[in-house]
Specification:
This protein is an all-beta fold. It is built from 1 helix and 28 strands. It has one helix at residues 264-267; strands spanning 31-38, 44-49, 55-60, 65-70, 77-82, 88-93, 98-104, 109-117, 123-130, 135-142, 148-152, 159-164, 170-175, 197-202, 208-213, 219-226, 232-238, 248-251, 258-259, 277-279, 284-289, 294-299, 304-310, 314-319, 325-330, 335-339, 345-347, 356-365.
């Protein structure tokens, strides 16, 4: 294949500098799905595949990949963001098959695993932690050079997921409320005092324009998705021991967070833990629950639980380009395609025996 490949005709199994494997092959016609994973030797990677489960690349990473940020104007550009206490976020050009930059957190900070670009691609926003004070900040970087510009305050303690609302200006932060420190790993240091909320931040001024508190003690908002109409689907983890609270909620407009209805018999198998959340074009939400070995589905119009599919250690989740299906990954190496209308699933391709998929997936459009 010629060196001057177009965005629709390229891609690769990665090249050998810095531990990649790469072979030039045509990329998927519609989209490429990317998920982090761990190999049998405990090394960290990301891999790309199409909606049939066909492999397109595998890339070695300096740290465990958590979430991703895809450039909206140049979608071949992908930032792989580490979870705490990671301080290095590599940037890849998946069309050229190479790493093009390495973002490092500012001194005394570490990444919290998630970020997003402004709609025009001019800025990259990442949630980060001030190690000494445990205060969360949103770091703003140039979307092309990735140079540090400034920090926005007011993202609370333990900010995790981060999205830009359809207005193109307001950032919504999953304020988990959990105090951590790199010296203690992922151990939460303030369970009895934690305070979790959705935080709405003006991306231009840094002003906290609104907040919506979670209505349950010791329930931490971890991940979210934003629908085309601004509906926010939230996925939570319960850090207490004696209760079984609802784990999935939503927020709309100026309203409060509403936890979605679910029977106790369906709730208890989820084991108080969720991972990824996504909204399909028909308004059906999906939330993965790896500890409960279930992918759950939610009617966001009726504000209630619908059903679930049993998938062992399911974590990563994304929506197909047409919005009509979910793509899911499991720690066992399986990939699944789920019709968002019938909620029926099928396996995609063969099991990736060398990949223990991590909890988050993203899509790069062709």
């Amino acid at each position: 294949m010629a060196v001057g490949i177009t965005r629709r005709r390229m891609l690769a199994l990665l090249c050998v500098a810095s531990g990649l494997s790469f072979g030039m092959i045509p990329r998927p016609a519609r989209a490429l799905f990317i998920n982090g994973h761990i190999d049998p030797q405990g090394r960290h990677h990301i891999s790309g595949f199409d909606d049939l489960g066909k492999a397109y690349f595998t890339q070695a990473l300096p740290d465990k990949a958590h979430g991703f940020a895809v450039h909206p104007v140049r979608p071949e550009r992908l930032v792989a963001l580490p979870t705490l206490p990671g301080t290095r976020a590599p940037v890849f050009d998946v069309a050229a098959g190479r790493q093009i930059a390495l973002i490092e957190s500012q001194p005394g900070r570490h990444f919290y695993g998630h970020g997003c670009f402004s709609h025009d691609g001019q800025y990259l926003f990442t949630n980060e932690n001030i190690i000494d004070t445990a205060e969360g900040v949103i770091t703003v970087r140039d979307g092309e050079t990735f140079a540090f510009i400034r920090e926005l305050p007011s993202s609370g303690i333990g900010p995790h997921d981060l999205r830009l609302l359809p207005d193109g200006r307001t950032l919504v932060v999953a304020g988990g409320g959990l105090r951590t420190h790199p010296s203690s790993g992922k151990r939460e240091l303030n369970i009895n005092e934690m305070d979790s909320a959705l935080l709405f931040i003006d991306s231009r001024t840094g002003e906290r324009v609104a907040e919506r508190r979670i209505p349950v003690d010791k329930l931490s908002i971890r991940h979210l998705d934003v629908g085309a109409d601004g509906t926010i689907l939230i996925a939570c983890q319960y850090k207490g021991r004696r209760e079984m609270p609802k784990l999935v909620g939503m927020q709309q407009g100026q309203g409060d967070i509403e936890m979605l209805s679910i029977d106790d018999d369906e709730l208890w198998p989820l084991r108080n833990y969720t991972a990824s959340a996504r909204i399909a074009s028909n308004g059906i939400g999906a939330v993965s629950c790896p500890r409960g070995n279930r992918l759950t589905f939610w009617d966001l119009q009726q504000k209630r639980y619908l059903s679930s599919i049993a998938i062992s250690d399911v974590g990563g989740l994304e929506v197909s380009p047409d919005g009509d299906a979910f793509i899911a990954s499991a720690n066992t190496g399986e990939l699944y395609h789920i019709d968002a209308t019938t909620l029926t699933s099928r396996r995609m391709g063969k099991t990736w025996k060398q990949a223990r998929w991590t909890n988050h997936m993203t899509r790069v459009n062709a």
